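2024-03-11 09:14:02 INFO receiving multi-entity request
2024-03-11 09:14:02 INFO entity count = two
2024-03-11 09:14:03 INFO echoing inputs for audit
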Amino acid sequence: EVQLVESGGNLVQSGGSLRLSCAASGFIFRSYSMSWVRQVPGKGLEWLSDIRPGSDFMSYTDSVKGRFTISRDNAKNTLYLQMNSLRAEDTGVYYCARVGLFGGRDGVDNWGQGTLVTVCS
Amino acid sequence: DIQMTQSPSSLSASVGDRVTITCRASQGIRDDLSWYQQKPGKGPKRLIYASTSLQSGVPSRFSGSGSGTEFTLTISSLQPEDFATYYCLQHNSYPWTFGQGTKVEVK
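2024-03-11 09:21:47 INFO inference complete, emitting structure
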C-alpha cells in the first residue's frame, strides 16, 4: 500500500523559512516523480512543484519560483520542500503527491494527508 | 499557463440522481486530465485518469469523458458517500493546474 506521510508544518513568521518532509513507503520511491500541492483552508488545490526520479528536472509554479526548492533523497525514500521568504498567502495545507509512472500522461495518483503551514505577519 | 474552468462551483442533489461536472481547458490538453474527490480533512483521491480511465477500486458509477478542451465527470447514481468536493487536474503542460472545484451537497 502506498503511504505518503508529510511532516514539518508549523506556525512561522512572515519572511521566515520552513522545510517540509514526506516519508514514502509501499512503492519503489526512486522510480517515481513526486509533487507538492497546497490548499488554502476552505479553498481549492494549487500544484506547486514536481521533481523527476533522478532529480534531473524540477518545475515550479510562478507563485513559489525562487522561494521554494523541491528535493529528494532516494536512499531515505523522502521528498522535501524548502520554503523561504514565506508570506501570509503561503498559509495552507501542503500535500505530498506521487506522480504516476507515465508522468505528464498520468498525473497525480496518490496523496498524503497533508501538513498545515501557517504564516503570520 | 493553461486555465481550467470547472462548473458548477456547487450543486445540490439527492441520492440516486445523475450528476455531471464539467472542466474546460483554455487550450488543448489531449486527454491529460484526471478527476479527484476530496472529503473534509482528507487528501484527494483519484477517480479518473487519462480523461476516461477508471482508477482501480473506484465504483463504476463514476465515469469520465472528453478530449482536447472539454471534459466531463459523471456520477450515474449518486450515493451517500459521494457527497464531497470534486476537482479536475490538467497535467499536459507545466504548471499543472486544477479546476476551482465542485462541491456536491445534499438537496
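2024-03-11 09:21:48 INFO post-check: Chain B touches chain A at residues 1, 32-34, 36, 38, 42-46, 49-50, 55, 87, 89, 91-101 (CB under 8 Å).
2024-03-11 09:21:48 INFO post-check: The first strand of chain B starts at residue 4 and ends at 7.
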